[in-house]
Amino acid sequence: MTKYSVASTRGRTQRPEQTHAVWRGIGCLLMIIVPVISWFLAAETVRWGVEHRWPLPYQLMGYPVMPDILWKVPGLVPGLVFIQDQQNLYATIAIAVAFVVIAGGLISYFYSLIYRIAGPSRYGPLDSPPPNIRVGRYKR
Prior knowledge:
By secondary structure, this protein is mainly alpha-helical. The chain is 54% helix and 0% strand.
């Protein structure tokens, strides 16, 4: 028997509603699709920028250089060879990160816009209405 009789008669509480599986699936796909699309857009942007002589930072251009100590690890050698074959890798990574941030911001903005239009009301049935107070200008 519990100390408080209300808790024993109330029974088990219901679990809060979870996010629908479709929305979880869409979020999972977006976590994969947005970076992949951003990578391809960044690669094309860098290629187009080099062709049209954009003033890209020279530190980000060219082939990446790996430290000599990494070449001594036998399992890393094929991956290092693949990475060193990528031209303008640092510029592509920097622009891809920028595209991911921009795409994430746009998706969040449009989601919040749609949620504001089609989502539930701001106040629930148990909420009191907002106070209707007019504040006058303070005069000394």
